[in-house]
């Protein structure tokens, strides 16, 4: 039977976050908060693409490792990572040591800057897929949650066309949830109203 982390404050939360303390903190302070900052978007793109085939909990536990290994998520620096550094990263246990995902992060940094050049910012580009404001879902249980939406399908298709890698519709939707393009907190979660704008 899966253990759940006991939170002392008794606030109602989305059940998915009750695995460990950092997960609860992430849920309570970050997940679903609308993001307009390009660097934060890039951070989540790296983390979400690294997650493919793994749990978000695994990535969250390695987040500081990623922060150090990927230049505090500075896309301009990441875009210039040489092959010698890729080989160093493959020896770094603080991140997911998958050569395709590491190379995808470098590739995606370059694509990210091309999007910025075209749209003025990555934020402006991505928010265009939801009409510039968060979509407020009204989920009463986790069983109602979707893995993809028409918006994530369109965004993933467009990202692929622009050369991005490891960002299929499921991964893209996870990014859109994390960065507040969708408010997918359960309606009885205390954060649902807090992140609603």
From TrEMBL:
<dbReference type="InterPro" id="IPR011257">
    <property type="entry name" value="DNA_glycosylase"/>
</dbReference>
<dbReference type="GO" id="GO:0008725">
    <property type="term" value="F:DNA-3-methyladenine glycosylase activity"/>
</dbReference>
<dbReference type="GO" id="GO:0006284">
    <property type="term" value="P:base-excision repair"/>
</dbReference>
<feature type="binding site">
    <location>
        <position position="27"/>
    </location>
    <ligand>
        <name>Zn(2+)</name>
    </ligand>
</feature>
<keyword id="KW-0862">Zinc</keyword>
<dbReference type="Pfam" id="PF03352">
    <property type="entry name" value="Adenine_glyco"/>
</dbReference>
<feature type="binding site">
    <location>
        <position position="14"/>
    </location>
    <ligand>
        <name>Zn(2+)</name>
    </ligand>
</feature>
<dbReference type="InterPro" id="IPR005019">
    <property type="entry name" value="Adenine_glyco"/>
</dbReference>
<feature type="binding site">
    <location>
        <position position="189"/>
    </location>
    <ligand>
        <name>Zn(2+)</name>
    </ligand>
</feature>
<dbReference type="InterPro" id="IPR052891">
    <property type="entry name" value="DNA-3mA_glycosylase"/>
</dbReference>
<protein>
    <submittedName>
        <fullName>DNA-3-methyladenine glycosylase I</fullName>
    </submittedName>
</protein>
<keyword id="KW-0479">Metal-binding</keyword>
<feature type="binding site">
    <location>
        <position position="185"/>
    </location>
    <ligand>
        <name>Zn(2+)</name>
    </ligand>
</feature>
<dbReference type="GO" id="GO:0046872">
    <property type="term" value="F:metal ion binding"/>
</dbReference>
């Amino acid at each position: 039977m899966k253990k759940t982390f006991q939170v002392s404050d008794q606030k109602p939360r989305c059940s998915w976050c009750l695995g460990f303390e950092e997960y609860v903190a992430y849920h309570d302070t970050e997940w679903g908060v609308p993001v307009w900052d390009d660097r934060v978007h890039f951070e989540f793109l790296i983390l979400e693409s690294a997650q493919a085939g793994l749990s978000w909990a695994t990535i969250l536990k390695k987040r500081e490792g990623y922060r150090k290994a990927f230049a505090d998520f500075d896309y301009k620096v990441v875009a210039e990572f040489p092959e010698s550094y890729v080989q160093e990263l493959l020896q770094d246990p603080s991140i997911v040591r998958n050569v395709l995902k590491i190379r995808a992060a470098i590739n995606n940094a370059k694509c990210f800057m091309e999007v910025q050049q075209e749209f003025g910012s990555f934020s402006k580009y991505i928010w265009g897929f939801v009409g510039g404001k968060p979509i407020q879902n009204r989920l009463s249980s986790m069983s109602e949650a979707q893995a993809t939406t028409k918006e994530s399908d369109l965004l993933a298709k467009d990202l692929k066309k622009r050369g991005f890698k490891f960002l299929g519709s499921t991964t893209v939707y996870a990014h859109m949830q994390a960065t507040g393009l969708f408010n997918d907190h359960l309606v009885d979660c205390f954060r649902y109203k807090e992140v609603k704008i």
